[in-house]
Amino acid sequence: MANFIVAALYKFVTLSDFKAMQQPLFDFCDSQQVKGTLLLAEEGINGTIAGSQEGIDAVLAYLRSDPRLATLEHKESWAEKMPFYRLKIKLKREIVTMGVPNIQPDTMAGTYVSPEDWNALIDDPDVVVIDTRNDYEVAIGTFNRAINPHTSSFSEFPKWVQEQSGKDGVLGKGAKVAMFCTGGIRCEKSTAYLRSQGFDEVYHLQGGILKYLETVPEEESRWDGDCFVFDERVSVRHGLEPGDYELCRACRLPLDAQDKASGLYEEGVSCPHCHGTHTEEQLQRFRERQKQVELARKRRQRHIGVRI
Question: Active-site residue numbers?
């Protein structure tokens, strides 16, 4: 039986007092022994938290007690161990950073497509299917036929759209576009952005990849691989079962068995993705940190996140 419930949530809504919300929200989550990260901005709230079922239910009820967040939706999965080391409530300019002003996802987002109807949409050869996530996320799993924009951050996505909107680009005139992301939030903004650029037929996967993997039977799935998640589980598969990836503690990229078997892999210090990119001072710091991690492991203690 799962020991921890993981709740992913977001909502685009005007929160003019978002700065004043920070400390009370932290205090309440802390009182419920809930950990994770929540982002607050004038445009809304976004994040993932984990805790007991009672703790998660209490935090969600607390958030929804604000009339502006009464319709806040969330997606639940599970973890055998607490997937976060600490609790963070951060103030941001955007809850997902695109860097384009005056995008209005709450009124301009594209058409939702349910997980049950997603296969039929992306099987249509006339539909351009776009993965709006970052390159390292796409690398471990994506939908069949999906185009990878090869972005390292979401703020690069508008430039890619502009480059591909010419007559020889994949987003040529009249393109019918289907977009997806992990939980749905990036697609709210990316579809709103495309509509602001004159695209008429823009669709996105309701609930994101996580809802699809939870809902659609594996034998009917168009998904190939794992889905990267931003917590210590690293990735999930169909049924939201935890995957087999681990994080490189130096660069925070996902590692599979082949990566860990590489001569460029040193636990906690480097991996094939980041080998040779750190200074000697950084490597020394990473090795010292790893030494402390191993000592804590031998004592059966947690190295990170213990509050004093």
Answer: 181
